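User: Structure tokens for both sequences below?

Assistant:
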Amino acid sequence: MNRIHYIYRKVINSLFGDVEVFFALPFRWKIRGALAIGCLYLALVAMIFIALYPVYEAGSYSRTLLLIGYILLCIGIFGVILPVFIPALQRHPLGVIIVSSLFLLVAFNIILTPIVDSQNKFTLYALFVGFLAITFGARLYGRVIKEVSTEKTRIDTEIKLAQKIQTDLLPVIDIDEKHFQAFGKTVNAQEVGGDFFDVIKISDKQTVFCVGDVSGHNIAAGLVMGIVKSAFRTELRYNDNLLSIAASLNQTVIEQRSKGMFVSFAAGIIDFTKGDLELINAGHPPVIRIAHEKIEELSLEGAALGVITRMSFKPSRRDISGGDIYVCYSDGIIESRNVYREEFGSQRLTDLLRSLDRNKSAKEIYEIVSRTVEEFADGAPQIDDRTLLILRIK
């Protein structure tokens, strides 16, 4: 029974699966698409009737000759199809076309002879309707496909433009200053992603960093990403209070987001004069700190931006010292899967960071982590954006 159900689904999908290309088109093009498909299936029915009619109504016409005609028809059709699978036949395309055409001409001559000689008008009507439906349906279908192609080209162009804008908004960060090193990069799962990160030097004494993840991997997520990152930079021009900035960003997300969209966010201010780090976290994976041969996850409570109107954060302060390493990442890193659908996981990330040489630069640490995640995935599809930011205190 399951086998029959499987075959049924395959047949239905083969017959009607292609109509999905019309779903996003204007109503008038949907009508044309429906007419085109209707005509093509009408032609298919007519051709099947014409092909099978001689077997039953050929009268004294030779059944053996009909069988030969059907065999020649199959040989002609396979002659056109086989070059797709046999590269050697592609070297002589003209010869393949000529031979296949000869087989088809002889086959049609044999099969259509009893139809033409028949006194049954229905066969002639079927022949006329079949060719008319093929001509009309193919013309309509061609126009609809042209419209679909034009629309797809326009959408692809807009996506490429959005991708370029996002690339400009999220350049690779490679900083080597007096007090710290930083290296970060985002690898999108699709053309446009929702992850973002930044490192901003607001004075000789203070540097701010952030990492965030907008829910979703579409253009809408990319737009919200750009808004939040730009708003964060704008806020820093007038305010260095992380709690105030987070509250303002939360309101921005609520005003700009689509239904159900939210933004996980983590940010910190490093004060090199005071020797401390102030950190907040809004539903984002914890920042990992490597210091004095110890690894610590700086996890803080806080809902993601855009979830509730009034946010309450509990900032955390940590002393910093030379050699400290801070690892900021999005969940696309730890949720990367291999072909067996196993996740990389936070434990593997922690173990990897624990085994690293703490004297390596921020860029070297990034490359090791990124390469390890790629090797773990081993060619499995990337399901989420991967963002990784490494900061190293000198």
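Moving on to the next sequence.
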Amino acid sequence: MIKYQFKIRTRDGLTVDNLNIQGRDQADAERKLFQMYPKSEVTECHEVIGGTSRDEGLDLGGILALISKQDKEG
């Protein structure tokens, strides 16, 4: 399952930020979103990985280097 973070405008015109919903893909997450907020409009959607948005990136090489650095120090 992948986590998606949404920003929506409800049918009443209110903005709701940081809605985190898991789904097999974005369409599945949006389906769940519209069950909770019918007739709402998605204004933003970001895929979230490990607590950070995918836009921020997740570098496996950097993580491994950090682990090996900690092993050498310890």
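User: Anything stand out in the second?

Assistant: The first strand starts at residue 2 and ends at 9.
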